[in-house]
Amino acid sequence: MYRYVLAIHIIFMVSWMAGLFYIVRLFIYHTEANEKPEADRSILQNQFQLMESKLWNIITTPAMVLTVLAGLTMLYLNPGLLSVGWMHVKLTFVLGLLIYHFRCQSIMKQLRLGIFKLSSTQLRFWNELATIFLVAIVFTVILKSAIDWLYGLVGLVIFAVVIMSAVKVYRYYRLKNRKDR
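Structure (tokenized):
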């Protein structure tokens, strides 16, 4: 039974992550629509609101709920997992991911009201945070041992720096290409 629940947990975790990755891309496009002429802006923002709502309510949030329920079921079936250190680390990262999820929901509600607190560049950085959580969770589950956590943590920091640098480089080239037009 445990392995079936584990399979369900993994399947819905992949769906949840896909939803989180895509929702922030939509936020970026939604925000960048502000730079368009009014007629285009209105059409684009209405379309992005519709896409965000459907993605969030039909895929992302149900996948999050099923991921959490499957995870809790695994802990119920194998309570010994709660006595190992790596599980505490994983659950801490999962808590961070849940906070990220609900912060995305808050951003979506703000955009629906026409409140744009974050720039498209800030949203690009925000988008990479989900990747960092994913990498941290997967490495924690796979490596499990303390020495591997140390290497994993160093690797995670390096990975985060590389991703954030890539966003900065992309922003530089995007702005440069805009000026060349």
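The chain has a mean pLDDT of 89. The helical segments are 2-32, 38-77, 85-112, 120-143, 146-180.
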